[in-house]
Structures are given as C-alpha cells and as structure tokens.
Amino acid sequence: MTLLEVRKLSLRIGPVETLKGIDLAVNAGEIRALVGESGSGKSLTALSIMKLLPAGAVPAGQIHFNGRDIMAASEAEMCGLRGNDIGMVFQEPMTALNPVKTIGEQVSEGIRLHTGASRAIAEERTRRILDRVGLPSSKFPLDRYPHELSGGQRQRVVIAIACALKPKLLIADEPTTALDVVLQAQILDLLQSLVDEEKMGLLLISHDLAVVADIAHSITVLRHGEVMDSGDTTRILTEQTHPYTRQLAQASMHIPERTTPRYRPPHDALLSVRNLGRSYRGQRAGLFSRHEDTRAVDDVSFDLQPGQSMALVGRSGCGKSTLARMILALDKPSRGEIRFSSQRIDQLDEIALRPIRQNMQVVFQDPYGSFNPRHKAERLVSEPLYLLDRPLSAAEKRERVDRSLERVGIAPKDRGKYPHEFSGGQRQRLAIARAIITEPKLIVADEPVSALDVSIRAQILDLFADLNGRLGIAYLFITHNLSVARAVTDTVMVMADGQIVEHGRTEDVLRHPQSEAGRALVEASPDLHKALARRIGEQG
Fold first, then answer.
1. 381 vs 19: CA distance, rounded Å
2. How crowded is the C-beta side of 365, counted as CA atoms within 13 Å?
3. Is it the case that residue 92 has pLDDT exceeding 80?
4. pLDDT at 495 > cutoff 60
5. Best CA proximity match to 432, nearest among 408, 410, 468
6. Which of the following CATH numbers is that of domain 1-84+207-252: 3.40.50.300, 3.20.20.60, 1.10.12.10, 3.90.1150.10?
7. Distance CA 215, CA 152 (A)
8. Distance between start and end Cα atoms, the chain
9. How far out from the chain centre does Cα 229 lie?
10. Percent of the chain, pLDDT > 90?
11. Domain boundaries, the chain
12. Which of 157, 231, 275, 400 is the most buried if burial means most Cβ atoms within 10 Å?
C-alpha cells in the first residue's frame, strides 16, 4: 500500500526554484533513501512533506499521505498529523531537544497532546518507548536533561519522540551523521527493527551511500532540486547507469593520490607524548564523600614524526578530544609530559606558548561555528598572524591571505565574502587556509569531514593529502570514520576508555585489528562493496 506519494513537487523561495518536479513514493514497511549532495533539496523535500517550510517558500505539486492531500491541509490539520501519523527525526539532536526540559517531559508531551492521556499513563508509555530505543529508566531516569546524555543517547531520545505514537511514516534527516560508527550501526538497526515491527514507512535522508546500501529498499537520487535516478537500491547502486549516481559512488570510496612528503627525518619526533593522563574530580556523593575520579585519558604515549599523517580513532567519549586539547595546550594534563620539537610544552604559560602555537594549528569539525559571522574571509583567515614574531603590514597580511586561499583552491577575490556566502566545503577550505597561514609543522584536525557530503569530502581529503605532500605538514586526524583514516593517514591509533589499545600502520590495523575496540569499529564501519555484495546474495 502506498503510504506517501509525491508528484511534481516544486518549490520556489523568492526568485530561486529550489525543487523542480520531485516524484517519489514510500510504501508501508518500506525504507526509501533520499540521497544527494548538500544543497540538492533533500531537507527541503522533507520539510515540504511536513509543511514546515520557511516563510516566503511557495510549493506546488501534489503530496498525498495515506490518501490525504497534504498540500490542501490546514495548519490545525497538520498539527494533528505531525507526531501522530508522521514523525520526524532531525539531524542535530541537541538543537531539536529543549535544553531546559527533561527527556521524560519531552517524550510524554506529544503523547499527552495527541491522546489526552493522564500524566501517569503518559509517563508509563514514555518509559516503554525509551526502553524500546535502548534507554531503560533504570539507567536513564526520566528526569535527566539532554546535556547529561551523549550524542548517541540524545539521538535515541529524538527517535523516541518521533516514534512515541507509532506513526505510519517516519522521516529521518541524516540521523547518524555526527555519531561514531558503532552508535551509527545501533541507530540504523533500531530504525530497521521499528520498520519491520510496526510496518511503518521510513524516508531516510542521507549522503552516505554505504549506509543507504545497507538498509534502504529503494533510492531516489537528487541533484540541484531534480531527481537524477530512482529505483531499487541494489540495482541503482550496482548498475550505476546514471553518470551522477556513478559520481557519488566513486566519491564515497575515494582514496586521494598521495605523494611522499618532502621532509620527514627518520628520527627526532615532532610531537612526543609520554605517559599522559587527565582526570576529572568525581561528583559529590554526600556531605563528606565524592564519586571516584573520572580518567578521561590514561597513560597515553606516542610519537609523531615531521610530515607524518596519523589517525586517532575511537568511539564517542573514549578521550580523543581531551587528548587533542592537551596536545594543543588548551588543557593541562594531570600527569605525563608533551614535547613539541624537543621542547616541553605542557607546563608553559600563554606567553611562552605563542611561538609553539605558530607551528601548531587546528581545524575544527564545524567551520561555521568556529567563524565569526560578522567578519569577512580575509579577517578570519588572517587571525593566527598575531602569533608571528613581528607585526605585518597590511600589504604583507593580504599577500599571506591570498597565498593561503590559493593553496586551498579559493580565489583571492573571494576574500571580501562573509562565511554564509560560501558553501559547506568552501567554509572547510577557509578553515584549512586559516590553519596553514602561519606555515605550521602540525595540524590537529578534529572530525574535519564528518558533516560533509561524499563529493565535498573527497575534495577536502585530496586537499589534505596535497598539503601534506607539498608543504610537509604533519597531521593528527581525530575521526570515527575509518574510510577517512584509510584514505589520508600513514598510521592509526585506536583509543578506548582513555587508553591507546592499538597502534600501527593504517592498513595493517584496519585489515586485521587486534584489539576488541578496533574490531568493533571495523565491523560497524559501513562499506558500500560489502553491503551490495550482501544484498545481491540475499536477492539471489
């Protein structure tokens, strides 16, 4: 039975036509994937179905849900459908959840609103659905707030809210983008089981073809607001008859061409970490007692050579970011030492750290969040120049900015633009330009491509590999994406519970992991070839 049918859906926002004749259908018990690059119209299609479009948006076409004309429905009628018959899982759970309400209040709110149930009955149903998504009340009381949960746990709460009333259709907009691969596998298994048991339809919005190949029955490929390809997932992704589908598949498995860095001495480590640890005091348990201290990083030691590219992989909460903050001298270790270019840096004050910071820069996961939206690209990229030994003239600053922009593939004439005038991939290039403007010896990259679609991710990985080869910059990549680690790093360290449990050549560790944490990451990591081979075998 066709649950959702979209025909000739168009959308105009001001003078721009963002959607152009979209056709798609979702049956009961079916998972349909909606894939494409950033800006292709995936989220706008979902918001059109929910009638949550921004002001000034003018839709046209037909949207029928369970035989009902969505386009003609009033706001009051849509309020009755949203949450009750149509649920939506948004991409960023911390934004979707109310930070001042407990998780119990937020899940039970929709139950009480749509069913008129009493507080006691709503709380009982809330406990059941939270238990169903892997958050039992014995471990996760209803009075917890969103900030007290991890990213994966918050995403489960969002899924619980969307599924509390057993909707006929669930729309999931990039539900696993920022999660580690183990959590991602758990969330996808949860969505799959909800579809199988409740026979609901699932519209899964994603840019990850490996995830899509593993879970979706059918697929619709969008580009610039138009449908490029549509049909059975296995057939579409194996035959790849449409050039754009082939382009996406190649980008999702892209491995940059790497040259040998021009400078890599065999000895004298650039960064040396010895017996590093970081503990946080336990919460107060009573008037005169505390819980045990939390060891975020525990006895970590490693060396990073000049020009070397190293990955630090592990699950969320394993201590990766805490370790990175100590290396960047943004946090003081509880024990151990850090040496950079043979100089101990973990005990230096801010003034003594200035020449060190010139040679050690960082690229954050979300470039838009790390930029001041009121400043233009020239000022943003030139920010680290204050670390240099002498002040530069305006002409020298502009020359440095232009050189950095050219190195990352952005035209110098774009220096006068604001961050919102760049695409997601261009903003990440700006972040890299800012990092390399002081010509550092080391860049710490914290999940630099996790939020990017596959085509832009391939371009950014090519850029990292090119800068590594041309400038001899050493990298420490913090990531949970093993395909990224495989693509651009020489060695990999696997971290679990604050400790380095495995360390070796990237290909050796990822092909034959020896640690339990390494095996869990490899097994949970989505793989397009393996997913398609499994589905072809299942379909005979």
1. 34
2. 13
3. no
4. yes
5. 408
6. 3.40.50.300
7. 19
8. 25
9. 25
10. 41
11. 1-84+207-252, 298-359+441-540, 373-439
12. 157
Query: From the CB of residue 195, how many other CB atoms can be counted at a distance below 10 Å?
Result: 20
Phi, psi of 469 (to 5 degrees): -75, -40
Residue 297 CA neighbour count, 13 Å, CB half = 24
pLDDT of 392 > 80? The answer is yes
Report the pLDDT value the prediction gives residue 482, as an integer from 0 to 100: 84
Write out the DSSP string of 70-101: STT--HHHHHHHBTTTEEEE-S-HHHHS-TTS
Residue type, 68: R
DSSP state of 384: G
Pairwise CA distance, residues 214 & 189, whole Å:
10
Half-sphere exposure of 507 (CA within 13 A, CB side): 3
**264 band by pLDDT with thresholds 50, 70 and 90:** low
User: Is the pTM above the cut of 0.90?
Assistant: no
Distance CA(88)–CA(81), nearest Å, equals 11
Lowest mean pLDDT among 251-255, 408-412, 497-501: 251-255
Write the burial class of residue 540 (CB in 10 Å: 0-12 exposed, 13-18 middle, 19+ buried): exposed
**Rounded distance, CA 259 to CA 191, Å?**
42
The residue with tokens 């029928």 is 64
Supply the DSSP string of 426-457, one letter for each residue.
Answer: HHHHHHHHHHHTT--SEEEEESTTTTS-HHHH
* Side chain identity at residue 291, one-letter code: H
CA nearest neighbour of 28 among 217, 251, 161: 217
3-state secondary structure of 290: strand
- Selection from 137, 150, 183, 191 nearest residue 29 by Cα: 191
List the beta bridge partners of residue 477: 311, 445
Cα(455)–Cα(185) distance, integer angstroms: 23
- Tell me yes or no: is domain 298-359+441-540 CATH 2.40.30.10: no
Each residue of 447-474: pLDDT tens digit? 888 767 788 788 888 888 888 888 888 9
State the chain's mean pLDDT as an integer.
87
| DSSP β-ladder status, 201-206 and 169-173 | parallel
3-state secondary structure of 208: coil
Q: Give me the pLDDT at residue 201, please.
A: 93
pLDDT score for 266: 54
For position 55, what pLDDT does the model report? 84
Distance of CA 86 to the CA centre of its chain: 25
pLDDT of residue 270: 92
Can you read off the two tokens belonging to residue 328? 């960047």
Domains 1-84+207-252 and 298-359+441-540 share a fold: yes
